[in-house]
From TrEMBL:
The lineage of its organism: Eukaryota, Viridiplantae, Streptophyta, Embryophyta, Tracheophyta. Signal peptide: none annotated. This is Carotenoid 9,10(9',10')-cleavage dioxygenase 1-like. Fe cation binds at H263, H312, H355, H576. PANTHER family: BETA-CAROTENE DIOXYGENASE, OS06G0162550 PROTEIN. GO terms for biological process: carotene catabolic process. It comes from Gossypium australe. It comes from the Eukaryota.
Length: 595
């Protein structure tokens, strides 16, 4: 399996699936032909007149193709184990609700605004798989349709708080289509047998003009005063933050016609948004720079990659941006308004890095902090392997579990942990080191967003519970970590082969069988220091089946949450969250009534 540099390593899901040999492809063609021969004969017998409208003819042909698909492909729900129950979907709410069960107090200087998190929520109750004469294909665990979960913090004139909660699907065009058909329609086209995947590609394209559906389930971000939902496989969708209504696809007023990576970055100083768009056909990767108001594409550059690579994350500094070329262990640095010819490449140790804390310039060096692993969890097991067993093995801890497991080499696991790269632009040298030890796996990093692209002192991330993840075959995060980038771990003794020691880390662990997602930093109003503020996160207790939002003071990170907000509905585990400060006093009724 190929390994790569920053920021992601993946079996390239954006690439067309490969068929192992010409013999396999000939077999596929023969199977396709025999499978659809009865329907082709029906088409030949149709009493079509020359004056039939083209649209009518087209609709008739598509109906026949739909009938063929319904005949050949059998859809089935992918069951969830009891330990996976909170990965299951919830119903979309028809209206917002007020939340009154709050333990502790929301601080008076907490920012008024919206805490919002994205995540997969399969529209028909479960992810699906298909079986046919071509084999099996199935949706991966990241493919459920996007659902936004929002908590509104409204501050009254007397300083009292009103908290509202609502959820809503991101209404992509493909979600609307499947709602209209009232059944799963897209054939799974990422994981499974090559002939089944290839036939899914072809039939999805024929029926809907798209290889796969638009999931928009990964991240939410703000730019130019507007909020957007995004996943790697399509353009972002603009969201009305008060109603969670999906407004339209964001193409930067016609200037952008390809997907965004899920983590675009605002450039410090200018407020410009740096984006990276990946596609399965040339140009495989393009850089874009969008104006601070979001109205204009200021720069676009073909990075001239020779293959398609799914890039989930990029980083910016005050002058530079970075991207990753899958299959090569190297990092590229280029000016924000540069071209492919201006990229400076640095060879690094093979790795899989989905997410970054931050990037910044330090003299001649560009420093990058991310959560680095040595293997990838996407797209999943190879043909013939049991999916649950495969994920369970990959999510094991490095250290042995007492009485049950032996130690496992790190390169055989998906075990991300904080890592540092220092690229010297003058000498071309790279220095690399782990920032934390092997006690905990950590991912989904975030910082005070006021420090994106400039040197920062603190980072935060979710701490994986490797035991619970192994038992369920799904990643579960049992706590949070605060990293002190400038302070050495006082309990660490230097090894001969390491130049610097591990850094100081504080942990905030949740209650037993409680796991969280979508954590974000909320700066304190009028705060002076970088960690003046709070960390908010959705959590779910699997013993009580209760979901909450926790508010944790960043300066007293190991202390109990200052507030526990118990939600009236279950919130499934998801992906990334953010907090948008905004005044809401005059919008409470609009939030409640416009759902």
């Amino acid at each position: 399996m190929a390994s790569s540099g920053l920021p992601i390593h993946i079996h390239c899901s954006a690439q067309k699936p490969s068929v192992s040999s010409s013999a396999n492809f000939d077999h596929l063609k023969s199977t396709l032909s025999s499978a659809f021969k009865p329907f082709l004969k029906q088409i030949e017998r149709l009493p079509l007149r020359i004056d039939v409208a083209p649209q009518t003819l087209n609709n008739t042909c598509l109906k026949l193709v739909d009938a063929a698909v319904d005949s050949v492909f059998e859809f089935a729900d992918q069951p969830l184990l009891p330990s996976q129950s909170n990965f299951g979907p919830v119903d979309e709410m028809k209206e917002a609700v007020q939340v009154t069960n709050i333990q502790g107090e929301i601080p008076r200087d907490f920012a008024e605004g919206v805490y919002i998190r994205n995540g997969p929520n399969p529209i028909f109750g479960a992810l699906t798989s298909t079986s046919s004469m071509f084999g099996r294909s199935s949706c991966t665990w990241i493919e459920g349709e996007g659902m936004l979960h929002a908590l509104y913090f409204c501050k009254g004139v007397e300083g009292d708080w009103t908290v509202l909660y609502k959820n809503r699907y991101v209404e992509t065009e493909t979600l609307k289509l499947e709602k209209q058909r009232n059944k799963p329609s897209f054939l799974p086209a990422i994981e499974g047998d090559s002939p089944a995947i290839l036939s899914a590609y072809l039939l999805n394209m024929l029926r809907y003009g798209k290889v796969n559906k638009e999931i928009s389930n990964t991240n939410v971000f703000e730019h130019g005063g507007k909020m957007y939902s995004v996943a790697d496989n399509h353009k972002p969708q603009e969201i009305n933050i008060l109603t969670l209504e999906t407004l339209n696809d964001w193409d930067v007023n016609g200037g952008w016609n390809r997907p965004f990576s899920s983590h675009p970055k605002k450039a410090p100083g200018t407020g410009e948004l740096v984006i990276l768009g990946i596609d399965a056909t040339k140009p495989f990767a393009e850089l874009g720079v969008i104006s601070a108001d979001g109205n204009k594409l200021l720069h676009r550059a073909d990075l001239k990659l020779n293959r398609c690579s799914l890039c989930h994350e990029i980083g910016v500094t005050q002058r530079l941006m970075k991207y990753e070329k899958e299959g090569y262990a190297r990092i590229g640095i280029m000016p924000r308004y540069g071209s492919a010819d201006s990229i400076q490449w640095f060879k690094v140790k093979p790795n899989c890095t989905f997410h970054l804390f931050n990037c910044f310039e330090d003299g001649d060096e560009v420093v990058m902090w991310g959560c680095r692993a040595l293997d990838s969890i996407i797209p999943g097991p190879d043909k013939g392997q049991n999916k649950f067993d495969w994920f369970s093995r990959k999510l094991r801890p490095i250290k042995p579990i007492e009485g049950s497991m032996d130690a496992v080499p790190e390169d055989q696991l998906v075990f991300p942990r904080p890592y540092e790269w220092r690229m010297n632009k003058q000498t071309g040298d790279v220095k690399e080191r782990n920032l934390t030890g092997t006690e905990y796996s950590m991912d989904f990093p975030f910082i005070n967003e006021g420090f994106v692209g400039v040197q920062n002192n603190y980072g935060y991330c979710q701490v994986r519970d490797s035991i619970a993840s192994t038992a369920s075959g799904m990643a579960k995060y049992g706590g949070l970590a605060k990293l002190y980038f400038g302070e050495q771990n006082p309990g660490f003794s230097l090894k001969e082969n390491e130049v610097e020691g591990l850094i100081k880390v504080e942990y905030h662990m949740f209650e037993k069988n409680t796991f969280g997602t979508g954590a974000a930093f909320v700066p304190k109003q009028g705060g002076v220091e970088e960690d003046d503020g709070w960390v908010v996160t959705f959590v779910h207790n699997e013993d009580t089946n209760i979901s909450q939002v926790l508010i944790i003071e960043a300066k007293s990170f190991t202390s109990k949450p200052v507030a526990r907000i118990t939600l009236p509905f279950r919130v499934p585990y998801g992906f990334h969250g953010t907090f948008r400060p905004m005044q809401l006093q005059n919008d409470i009724l609009r939030i409640l009534l416009n759902s």
